[in-house]
Protein: Inositol 2-dehydrogenase
Amino acid sequence: MVRIAVLGAGRIGKIHAASVAANPKAKLVAVADPFGDAVRTVAEAHGADAMTDAMEAIARPDVDAVVIGTPTDTHVGLMTRAVELGKAVLCEKPIDLDIAESEKAAANVERLGGKVMLAFNRRFDTTFAEIRRSIDAGRIGEVRQVVISSRDPGMPPAAYVKSSGGIFRDMTIHDLDMARWLLGEEPVLVSAIGSRLVDAPLLEQYDDYDTVMVTLQTASGKQAVINNCREAVYGYDQRVEVLGSTGLLTHDNLRPTTMRLTTAEMTDAQEPLLNFFLERYAQAYRAEMNAFVDAIADGKPMPTTVRDGVLALRLAECAVESVRTGRAVTV
Amino acid sequence: MVRIAVLGAGRIGKIHAASVAANPKAKLVAVADPFGDAVRTVAEAHGADAMTDAMEAIARPDVDAVVIGTPTDTHVGLMTRAVELGKAVLCEKPIDLDIAESEKAAANVERLGGKVMLAFNRRFDTTFAEIRRSIDAGRIGEVRQVVISSRDPGMPPAAYVKSSGGIFRDMTIHDLDMARWLLGEEPVLVSAIGSRLVDAPLLEQYDDYDTVMVTLQTASGKQAVINNCREAVYGYDQRVEVLGSTGLLTHDNLRPTTMRLTTAEMTDAQEPLLNFFLERYAQAYRAEMNAFVDAIADGKPMPTTVRDGVLALRLAECAVESVRTGRAVTV
Amino acid sequence: MVRIAVLGAGRIGKIHAASVAANPKAKLVAVADPFGDAVRTVAEAHGADAMTDAMEAIARPDVDAVVIGTPTDTHVGLMTRAVELGKAVLCEKPIDLDIAESEKAAANVERLGGKVMLAFNRRFDTTFAEIRRSIDAGRIGEVRQVVISSRDPGMPPAAYVKSSGGIFRDMTIHDLDMARWLLGEEPVLVSAIGSRLVDAPLLEQYDDYDTVMVTLQTASGKQAVINNCREAVYGYDQRVEVLGSTGLLTHDNLRPTTMRLTTAEMTDAQEPLLNFFLERYAQAYRAEMNAFVDAIADGKPMPTTVRDGVLALRLAECAVESVRTGRAVTV
Amino acid sequence: MVRIAVLGAGRIGKIHAASVAANPKAKLVAVADPFGDAVRTVAEAHGADAMTDAMEAIARPDVDAVVIGTPTDTHVGLMTRAVELGKAVLCEKPIDLDIAESEKAAANVERLGGKVMLAFNRRFDTTFAEIRRSIDAGRIGEVRQVVISSRDPGMPPAAYVKSSGGIFRDMTIHDLDMARWLLGEEPVLVSAIGSRLVDAPLLEQYDDYDTVMVTLQTASGKQAVINNCREAVYGYDQRVEVLGSTGLLTHDNLRPTTMRLTTAEMTDAQEPLLNFFLERYAQAYRAEMNAFVDAIADGKPMPTTVRDGVLALRLAECAVESVRTGRAVTV
Structure:
């Protein structure tokens, strides 16, 4: 039985707490969050202790592992402390908005031999995982091009934009990880363009963008392109396409049902997409937690690492620089 | 060069005349129709002679074959005369609304060794033909069930309903032929139900139906079901599905383009269907004519025969009787 | 909190026990099954009491409701006892293989005002439920035709066939319920054909069929057709199509992922279907239990009733008779 | 009646000759090609004069318009001569492999008020045209992102690669025109990456690429990305996707039929794609010719212009430079 404390009782903390509670090999020992009401609700729902101090939760002798779902600027401190105490860590991305801080933290974790998994949840989605498996099984030969479409249903609130670190570090980073994972090689060249087409006044204020495209190229020439938009009125659009030397892998977005409506005006119209990440990746969050628990229980390597977090963030930094300089940036 | 006269300059006659004109192995010699204006327009468009008397057209020494697209009650007379004169015939279905007359005409054609092809155009549609070929190629093993959905975009005019011979002889007959063709065996048992859901007052007047279902069973137990409706607001719905012992064959309806529209209300909505038979089966009509010309030019058997016309009509008769008696009718 | 005992610890009992345990408004008090090992495993997994006597479980004062997942020939006895003791019941279909017994049991339940829900799980599938809701919302106008394709992935074992009551009472009954539900009216005329195409020797032995078609007609003329086969090599095929006066509703089967593979031989090939009812209807079983618990907790009518069970079985009887007599049978 | 001479009797010349012959408002007067056998075959098939000298064909007084389907290095000379003689021109792309020459030729045409249409055939494909119309009709609001996937079924012969002008000028140019057309604004920034993943030895020899991606940005920030590969084993892949402020437009590739095969291994597998441009764009070539003839007959502006050819070629030049310099290039 892996005994786990979840740090943070916000939107993502709640998801993780429920996933731990539902995992037969894990036990949710505690939930920690300075907001007393929130933490009590989550903890009570699963019969766990409610705590206000995350560091105390980490230090508990009856805690084997922690899940970090707190604000980004606390990630490095909590992760480092947990690793020092020999606790396994599942940490939400990004490690830190600052690449140097992230690099330092990752180096520290690696020096200490810490077991840290970065929460790139999409890798655990059944469809994305099946695509990766199909590539591994040789069903499309050598990968040549990866095309990623990733669009949010709508602009986040201004306050979120302000503290997000910008679209590349906040949103594109998931796709950069997906690109690395599907390419199977590290990108060495990054080009990006950025536009303000949804809410120009807001994004100018923060020197940010709402609509971006990033191209990536590996040393052997494999290519990927990511297209992001902060607003897709039709829902949370999450698609990848992988062109290989002997085939192509694609997939459909998810909808609540598979119903299709045909009328005099249109045929086979499907329902709107599952609207945002909590719905779209509900299965992936559970599978991610199960993979974390399994890695601990079986003493196996973490399926994603703190290094993955650094590498994705570095690609995001390159994209930022590419937009600023108008140059393809060498990683 | 096969020299052809097209009898009838109405909707279907025009189609056939254009198909003959476009076939490099055929020559459109004449078009015959009592309506002088109509026939002149069609004939002139293709540089053929316009005639008002179909029998005269048949008798021309420079005519090798005739296409009968005249009113149903003239089919038997024209076909018989053409066969007597040794001309090949492509005849629109049905042979006659009366099964005894049809049987007699067919027996006569067979006795004389006449080359008569019945115009079951759907067999020449690329998709339906590919399904038949795929069955022949063993891609789904032994056929077990055939499901046919065939719906018109809207009720025909009252005058048409009056002289149509009823939905089973006029509309279902195409599907009965398709069922025979896809089953690969003759049905021996026919059950049918009929309803008046679209225009009850009109159909009661003619003891006819607008919505019907027919089930068929062959001696070895293979099954087919046909569902028809005279009105599908979304267009001309033409689908078959074949369940075999090792697989399933289905297909999509056709639309003018493959565009899909996604909005806040719906995703991947496709365009309305090609609206009626002239559009939906444009390719099939040409391929049907090409098959007719090829059979003549190469001295090969007709791809469909007058017997096919009789057998489909007999199944339609059985369906009529089944609705009337509430019994499954043995063919 | 609704306190529930699950009767039967077999395949379906396990599903129901887990659904009760996962429902926050319900408590799994006991699981009863004469097979001691099976019942202990299920009970322990959810912290419930393991019992060997179902009647004792029903009688427990700390049990408000029972779920009957025992062999068919015990359904009536358990249901009747539970109703007499004022317990709510969720009963697997069929009530009994004998229509007279079923009718008697239903009449008794109704006389006593018992709260009995028949487990027609498909009504709780999100897609089928959305289709029903869309009809209710007027999205396709008046229903005209319902086409149901329902095929099992493979023949059940001979022992199952022997005691199943025949394909119409065992397999088609689900589709007959679905047809009633989607038609929104009671069928008054039933025609059926039956074939032995998968395993003729076995089915002849039990005077049963493996491939059947049933057509239904309501008093107002609405039509439905069901096509069943005991073997579809491509998996558990579960589709309905509803033609209305202003539109059409269809849907896709479910697969483990939405991945599509394109190679030199084929394009956009999807994965095999979810293979059988436990996988395909996993969500429906949970939703069914939630609906049962909600109806009890809120004192509302059961979403399906013992009468639904009788009516579906009666349609199955008519189908059996129709195959035997070659007549359309009036319900 | 528009009297037309087709210059060039190769693959594309044959297509154009047949399109002219099939157009009721046009007359194919002559076909010109130095290869006597080829030109005789084409000319005879349509009852036109066979000529060996294109300049002579242009000069014929019974020729109103010419279609230039000759080798690229003859385009400017023929086009210029035709315009000087007041003949309308439909010219295959590119105008010339050299941007300066193209610019000069275009300026000359514009100075003389010549009627020149550049053969960007894809704009006349029914699906692409419907997408453009849907954008114009406001069905997706303001365009934000265009994603173009355009992949050939296989590498062209080495001789073709040698004289093609490189992938950007030869293949991507079609997509660059499509991007301009769908964006509805001129791109001002071009970034590109190029790889050699299919046949590196061959392409290194000519300093060319087989796998490329190009991103484009307009002054208002609209974005497009093109991904090309010279080899897609699954056929000729031709897709666009347009994200707008209120919706999304996508479409399917075309196949010979709409048949779908389901087996124990896969479900709903579709047929391979129409394999290359002659099949895929058969309808578009005819519609292109019809648009050309209509523009002449009705005295209306050409639907595409020589300027479109220059602008697409300029974007291709920018892409070449971007790959070489690793910079986003300002147009």
